[in-house]
Amino acid sequence: MTHEIDYRIQGAAMQYVEVELDPGETVVAEAGAMMYMTQGVKFEARMGDGSASGIMGKLFGAARRMLTNESLFMTHFTNEAEGKEQVAFAAPYPGQIVSVALAELDGELLCQKDAFLCAAKGTQISVAFSKKLGAGLFGGEGFVLQRLRGSGHAFLHAGGTLMVRELRGEKLRVDTGCVVAFQSGVEYDIERSGGLKSMLFGGEGMFLTTLSGHGKVWLQSLPFARLADRVLINVTRVVQDDRS
Fold it and tell me: What are the 10-residue block averages of pLDDT along the chain, 244 residues in total?
């Protein structure tokens, strides 16, 4: 059973989400995502989302999370007081936070591994691998995805500005890093970005992600990897200028 939680998304360019917990309610988050919590909230690190039963199930879930370079543990925040309490979460780089009601998305959503921020307890958070070899070899951060299942709210973070688009049988070609999430009915694959000259000198990478079929997709205008690359280039230039 998924916990029912109230929330407010605060801010504009650099948002955070404040979750209000009734007594006994719990929200699950990636390690290090917490911004603040009030006195009655207690937290505990556990293996995964808490849905796995038995030591083998927990270990198997932890091993799969290792493949995404995520922490083996997730943090569970529970209201152990008699009244309402709050806990807030924020992402480590500028962008927008979006709330997704899994019950309105057929109970399942696939997201890239850096997008998931937190979710109501009862949401199953697991690893999903691309079914196609091409996407696995060249899909970059899109190869290993996180699968969210449940009926409650989950919160995703997108770098820069968030775009939501409904696919109705068409194909959308996207820079791999710009994919945040998509419904399970959407097909994910990769294709060449163009001819050899375009692939080598076009600046868009050798491959593009393709999303096709029916369902919603969430895209981000500023992936963290792109931001980090630009910062690294500028730092390298400054260092070279200082040496010359």
Answer: 90 92 96 95 85 56 56 88 97 91 95 91 84 47 77 94 95 90 91 56 65 96 71 64 66
- pTM, entire model: 0.81
Closest CA to 29 of 93, 95, 90: 90
Give the three-state DSSP class for 1: coil
**Contacts (Cβ under 8 Å, ≥6 apart) of 231:** none
The CATH number for 6-243, chosen from 3.60.160.10, 3.40.190.80, 1.10.10.10, 3.40.50.150, is: 3.60.160.10
